[in-house]
Amino acid sequence: VWSCCGCFCIFHLVCIQKWAKDSLFLVSSPLTDDDFGKKDYPWPCPKCRFEYKRSETPSRYYCYCGKVENPAVDPWLVPHSCGQICEREFKPSCGHKCLLLCHPGPCPPCPKMVTTTCHCKKAKAVPRRCSAKEWSCRLPCGRTLLCGQHVCENPCHAGDCQPCPRVSKQRCICGRQTAERLCASPQWQCDQVCGKCLPCGNHTCEQVCHAGPCGDCPRSGKRSCPCGKTKFTLPCTEDVPTCGDSCDKVLECGIHKCSQRCHRGPCEICRQEVEKQCRCGKHTKRMPCHKPYLCETKCTKIRDCQKHQCRRKCCSGNCPPCDQVCGRTLGCRNHKCPSGCHRGSCNPCPETVDVKCNCGKTVIKVPCGRERTIKPPKCKQLCSRPPTCHHPTQEKHYCHFGRCPPCRQPCQKTLTCGHLCPVSCHDEALVKQTGSHQSAGPWEQASEPVFIQTALPCPPCEVPIPVECLGQHEVSPLPCHSANPYSCKRFCGRLLDCQNHTCMKECHRVTKSSSSADGKKAGPECSQCEEECTKPRPAGCPHRCVLPCHPGDCPSCLQMLKIKCHCKLSVLYIECLKLTRADVKEKELLISCRNQCPKELPCGHRCKEICHSGSCPLNCSQKVKLRCLCKRLKKEVQCSKIQEGQVSLECDALCKEMKRKAYEIKEAEAKAALEEEKRRQQAELEAFENRLKGRRKNKRRKDEVEVEQSSWQKYKNFIMLPVFGVAVVMV
């Protein structure tokens, strides 16, 4: 709903939205061409005509105080109220807020108590309600009036004092005339011109009765020519001449300028011929600029009623509202609309019609036309029709149209099991009729289902009876009509003869015997165990039990295990029983092949231990030769000491002398090779120069260049042989 701020009348939200939309459309219909689309028209309240702006059209549902949007329904609160404190400011505003719960209608007067004095401030302050804090002491006001001569004689009042009612003789502003006037308006003007001589000495003041000095002569100082382009400094006795230039003032048409020379007085009307377009925009014509142009074409637009044409000559498009009578049939289908031709739906019919209940004792009045759609009134009289079922009396219900509602009393007929039927009466049940009509083809539309009223038999008895399942696992309450032994769908769960597994059949009947009196052992109907023995084997035994599933312990395992030794070179066959019962040391001996370990130590020698598990020991006892850096000296030591860095062999003085001599021989060879390369390059250069001189043009022969051997090449054999001989002897 929505509540008006002026009259606090409550309307449905959709209704007020439609009202605002229709009001804005009707009010904003253009009455003249100039006003169309230029004004934001308001819309009024349907009851008090309080005006709202277009932007104030309600679009959301709020509570009365406006705090909560879409307030929840609470049966303990006023409908459409949020239940919070109102807190709206009182009107007129006094600074306090309403303390009632969110409520419809205006807020009550402010109940606060304040201490206040009267309007004239003469009486003593007294406590009063805030809503009635302004009061009068009824004594004369006594405030000085605006005239400054008299005081207010009215009793104590609010606001400003009234104008002074007395009459007195008062002079005008210029002081020439005296007249009797109201004391409230002491200043007044007479009709005489001032006429005082201005400072120029040539002219007089032309102002009507005024106060203060007259001012300078209006013709003194610089004055402009009539067109305003040229300024002159002339005595006030001489008139300003025209400048002789063109006037150039904008004419009344607002487009062209005056083409005459500078002149006094107003400019003439615009006589320039222009191409003008008529108001409707369909025709153009050359004519004087100052004349309006209206064609004879009639407007063919549809007016706001959307039925009739405008038919106005040279219409600009803002057609006036339609002035014909509507005459359309109203929503009641009984009367016609008497309003003027309008757009949209017509107003509802004002007539009313009586609508009665079935017995005719309750009557309501509804608007004309609503009697066909409105529900009949709710009658408070009881229905007097006789029952149609097997019960002696029917349930009490109010007056209604049509059939009586189905009987909701318990059936209470005796069933075959002896119990009473507890369901509602089913003597007149509505049953859907099937197979009564077959369609001629797929083109025929399916008809609505047909229901017939018939008596149904009593349903099966649903009284719960405790019943035990076949396997005696549980006791469940079953309906009386199906209270028979049943399978609970669980596994049987009885212990089989193997004493290891239970029966996996679905819950079934078991024949009881003297041996299975406890109800936990399997019977002849249970399944037989056909699985292998799944008992845990000794640690390390990979074989299964050779017997099927059996009670008691499994026999010892006598199978042979095929196992590789520690060094992975030999294959051993050992009894599973011996291996599983042996301790760590015995297992170490059983898996060993008794041969030397083939693994290679980090030093490169073979392990000296017998086949063993884990990594080999690092103390290698193999004897190896240790040499110095020049490989001349050697010594036999244990391999493990060399790996640990405990033993080393250094070069002696003779080794160092041999290194020095070898270095000198190598340096001499490098120097001789460098000289040999230089001589070879020199010989090649000379041969190339001889070929370029052209001394032998006819005969070609090879240049023989004798290369002299160096001293190193001549005597190297004599030097190297003794050196190598000494080295061999030392080795």
Would you give an account of this structure?
- One of its GO terms (cellular component) is nucleus.
- Residues 94-112, 147-166, 200-219, 253-272, 280-301, 305-324, 332-351, 389-409, 498-531, 541-559, 603-622 form the NF-X1-type domain.
- The chain has 731 residues and is an alpha+beta fold.
- The protein has a domain at 463-533.
- It has six helices and 22 strands.
- Strands 1-2 form a two-stranded antiparallel sheet.
Question: What is the gist of this entry?
Answer:
With 731 residues, the chain is of the alpha+beta class. The chain has helices at residues 13-27, 576-581, 584-591, 639-644, 653-693, 711-730, and strands at 2-3, 10-11, 43-44, 51-52, 113-116, 126-129, 167-171, 178-182, 222-224, 231-233, 273-277, 284-288, 352-356, 363-367, 429-433, 450-454, 464-468, 475-479, 560-564, 571-575, 623-627, 634-638. It is flat, with a radius of gyration of 66 Å.
Fold topology:
Blueprint: E1 2-3, E2 10-11, H1 13-27, E3 43-44, E4 51-52, E5 113-116, E6 126-129, E7 167-171, E8 178-182, E9 222-224, E10 231-233, E11 273-277, E12 284-288, E13 352-356, E14 363-367, E15 429-433, E16 450-454, E17 464-468, E18 475-479, E19 560-564, E20 571-575, H2 576-581, H3 584-591, E21 623-627, E22 634-638, H4 639-644, H5 653-693, H6 711-730
Antiparallel strand pairs: 1-2, 3-4, 5-6, 7-8, 9-10, 11-12, 13-14, 15-16, 17-18, 19-20, 21-22
